[in-house]
# Entry
Amino acid sequence: MDTASGAALFEQLQQLGEAHDLAGLGVCSVEPFAEVRDEMERRLLSGEAGRRRFTYTDPSAATDIRSTFPWAESLVVAAATYLPAAGRPGPASGNSGRISRFATSDHYRPLRAALGEAALQLVGAGHQAEVLVDDNRLVDRAAAVRAGVAWWGKSTMVLAPKFGPWLLLGSVVTDAPLPVTPPMTRDCGTCTACIPACPTGALDAEGVLDAPRCISYWAQTPGTIPVDIREAWGDRLYGCDECLTACPPGQRWEEQESEMDGRVDLLFLLEKTDDELINEYSHFYVPRRDAGFLRRNALVGLGHSGSAAAVPVVAQLLGSSRPMLRLHAAWALGALGGAGAAAALAGAADLETDVEVRSEIALAREQIDLA
# Structure
């Protein structure tokens, strides 16, 4: 492909992006993101990355697209915003839990559709092309920054003009030698609004996220949620938007949007079957597609937002066959307090055989006694 043909094809891709109301579209080279790989390796060694997963499963591959696609010549990178569909969370109410705005529905679907059309255009022009959206084979934020679609924020998110951090990213890897777009020259300047906004202090330095201290990390991680994270969890079910809502560019865009409920009835959720939960929230990342982790999250949320009506529902999970659920139910009852919670915990204490759950029950009973 000559220079003129590549420029003409890129112009067609830009027109497609405009037709799909994308927040940005650019092209970058496919050289390895060496600095990003080094930082990922450092974070793995320090423990700041938490458990090895997503792009951290193989940082070398995720930062070198040619290790997976040896024919790659260009990355077409796109960003889409999701606030117009998600809106602001609805008002707080008893027994409800917040869902992060990116997860109120499958907001990736329009981006996938746009990039799918871009791939078809490239294939129609005689090139190979494959769509990568929310894909472990590419650190999409690094590609977005190199392509001039966004800049690195101090929250470790990437930001774009007008939309701030409210972005979803995706790419098309192709063998078409397209003209590259230059990176942005802007940054966050002196603004550090996102750092103190973090409920757990996970943003302990500019551009550094300590993932095991992040609520959003634990909403998608198997196992027992640490006590300090539970205490800061608030009325959440999935994710945390605090660093995004604190971002001034994001606030200006957010103010233009209308209210839309981003909440779920946590008691109703706990009454659903596992299959119903996984089907309803199929767009969530749920470890091993195990609905028990959604129930775990709901129990922690109820510990903060639950009313007296939540006590008997939570107490039922003290009889779960899974120690993880019994432990989080005990914690939630301790947070809810009251005579009903105390009675449920007393009865469970006589039957519990798991050491960790017994300890949690004892702490919950002590908390109620001290209240």
